[in-house]
Amino acid sequence: MKSTILSVAALAAVAVAAPAKNNLLALRQMAPQITDADILQYALTLEHLEDKFYREALDNFTQADFADAGFDSTFYENLKEISADEMTHVSFLTAALTAAGAQPVAECTYAFGVTDVKSFVATSSILEGVGVSAYLGAAADIMSKAYLTAAGSILTVESRHSAYIRSSLKQSPFPSPFDVPLSLNQVYTLAAPFIVSCPSTNAPLPVKAFPRLVSSPENPMNITAGTKITLLTPDYVVKPADGTSTIYGAFITVTGPVFAEATPVDGGFSLTVPTAAKGNAPIRGQTYVVLTGCNTTVTDETVAAGPAILEVS
Fold first, then answer.
1. What is the pLDDT of residues 227-275, one digit of tens each?
2. Taking the complete model, does pTM exceed 0.85, yes or no?
3. How would you label 277-305 residue by residue, b for 16+ Cβ within 10 Å and e otherwise?
4. CA-to-CA distance for 215 and 222, rounded, in angstroms?
């Protein structure tokens, strides 16, 4: 299979930039100038995806299927509540955009890769975690206080969804004292693989997808600080333009990224999960890591690939 070589020369040149005080400030300073309507369209795009994800699963799998997979009737009923929440979020955002004089984006066509109940629940946990990070990251750019409050009220519900699903998977429902904000482009990179196509009438979003970065299936099941992991770069190769500069894995946290040198290996990079400095947000729970040639900050201008998603204990 043909591979694309991505140069990180421009990224390495940014390495002397002053570190951001925190990741929320960096997102605010570096994000492109977008409007509240753009953010609502972006949020609606994500809510359409989640809404369809739950509706499709509840159509495909019965309560008996969930029971056979080890999930009781209470879990099944709560899933229906989560599905109803996502449908309500779609209705709310659609109405808000219509009231603002914008044409709301419509539902796209998706491929979730779900083959059974267990893969559905595992994917649900990831999507809910990404949803939390999406709203948290976008909050810094919302100008309207009313929209900000509404987005915050959705964020807290998505966070409860995430905690419930995590607990059902025997994971800590609240593994970290901080959630992780992601930029619009970082979130879209994670959502894009599920999107097959969208209606041509949908307004274009001011987002782009970075090259994919995925956790190797050979990585240990229990990943902690100090664990050596491999991140794969499917169908492309990341190389420094000068052939010698260092590539880093940047673990995103609300108090700023934590960097680890990444060593090229067949199909990707190997690195060791770092420990955040005392007093900063820990690297724990659903964790996001990007590849970059910069070791001082992470912005959309310095990301070469990713995020990849890891579960860190």
1. 999 999 998 999 887 888 999 999 999 999 999 999 999 999 999 999 9
2. yes
3. eeeebbbbbbbbbbbbbbbbbbbbebbbb
4. 13
